[in-house]
Amino acid sequence: MSQPADLLIHARWIVPVEPANVVLERHAVVVRNGRILAILPQDEARSRYHAPESFELADHVLIPGLINLHAHSAMTLMRGIADDLPLMRWLQEAIWPAESRHVSYAFVRDGTLLAAAEMLQGGITTCNDMYFYPDAAAEAFDQAGMRAVLGITVLEFPTPYASDADDYLRKGLAARGQWHTHPRIGFSLAPHAPYTVSDETLVRVASLAAELDTTIHIHLHETLQEIQDSHSRHGVRPLTRLARLGLLGSNLLGVHAVHLDQSDFDLLALHGCSIAHCPTSNMKLASGIAPAARLLNDGITVGLGTDGAASNNRLDLFQEIRHTCLLAKVSTLDATVIPAHAAIRMATLNSARALGMGDLIGSIEPGKAADLCAVALDRIETRPCFNPASHLVYVAGREHVSHVWVGGEIRVNKGNLMLQLNDSELLALTALWQTKSGS
Ligand SMILES: [Zn+2]
What we know:
Elements: E1 3-4, E2 7-14, E3 24-32, E4 35-41, H1 42-48, E5 49-50, E6 53-64, E7 66-71, H2 87-102, H3 105-121, E8 124-131, H4 134-144, E9 147-154, H5 165-179, E10 185-191, H6 199-212, E11 216-220, H7 224-234, H8 238-244, E12 252-256, H9 262-271, E13 274-277, H10 279-284, H11 292-297, E14 301-304, H12 317-332, H13 340-354, E15 372-376, H14 388-394, E16 401-406, E17 409-413, E18 416-417, H15 423-438
Parallel strand pairs: 1-5, 2-6, 7-8, 8-9, 9-10, 11-12, 12-13, 13-14
Antiparallel strand pairs: 2-3, 3-4, 6-15, 15-16, 16-17, 17-18
Helix pairs in contact: 3-4, 3-15, 12-13, 13-14
Bound molecules: zinc ion.
Zinc ion (ZN) binds at residues 70, 72, 219, 255, 307-308.
InterPro entries: Amidohydro-rel, Metal-dep_hydrolase_composite, Metal_Hydrolase, MTA/SAH_deaminase
GO molecular function: hydrolase activity
Organism: Aromatoleum anaerobium
């Protein structure tokens, strides 16, 4: 007898990510109550389930929704404001002054909404964010129907958002109190970086993270300068300092990890930390090439992030996936490292696990949330197709994303974004902030 479901998605190919290195042909995903109920051959799905909605994706590959493991979403409003500068000059001469002039609740809400629209259209269903006004970002991600983890940003210096570390924590925790029961919105603690946060505050963050059972999201070992400065100010490398302060653990998500020595690899592996690899941002700011293949080899969970739109300048995980593969190969002179399936896994299941959300998202498995992305491989440049995993990494881009679901609800349909705001309303927001920022 046929069982009821909410949604049936028949796809030419499915890359479930778990089990690893598998491509299913002519299978269907059955969705009920926002969760994946079954993955089975299409004929069986048609006879065993009936649903009010079904999609026939005859030339498409279905993958788990991509997870952006590191973003500053509202920085879409500062895209292209300053390019071609190294990190510290870029921060001190361009970004921090611009933020001190313009950042507000409305800036973060509007900028994040634009980021969410861009990310959803590029197949991203979850974003791990770090910025000011996490309550404004929560409002935007809620409106866009995306899943998000919002960092409670902590700095020592004042910004229009908060005056000192206490104030950042107090406001961030208040936002968490307001939003944390939302089914798609979570919170982390986000001390900006070892060089912007004091020992005392880092210790407080570690104890709060344990108390609240949250991830700690922190920029780490991004530039050589950061490591030299840590040596002169603290006498040790940043990771050694964090270990001494009690920050390292399986809930520690370090962003970048470009410059690592043996002691750093050992600490990350020993404590089960995770890394958000952001290859495009690292290239653009000339920070270096993170040793992603070696980290993976050491058993460290490495996911992928875009970083903010002011240092990338695209919130495009297809680009990060491709850069990850190419950089790993050219930096090791070994073409076999990080093959296609491994890179797709980094942008999905590894990122989910780094967020402590590996039971909910990151793969197409029964019981998980139906966060899904379909990529159309029916164009001249994607045909013929001998291996859809290869095409996903080396050929396809976000322009080939045709359908996106979050928790079984459609967010992109045949390439069209399904938001309450239409494209011209979103473009009006960009025009508004272009005028405000230019004045
Ligand atoms: Zn960043």
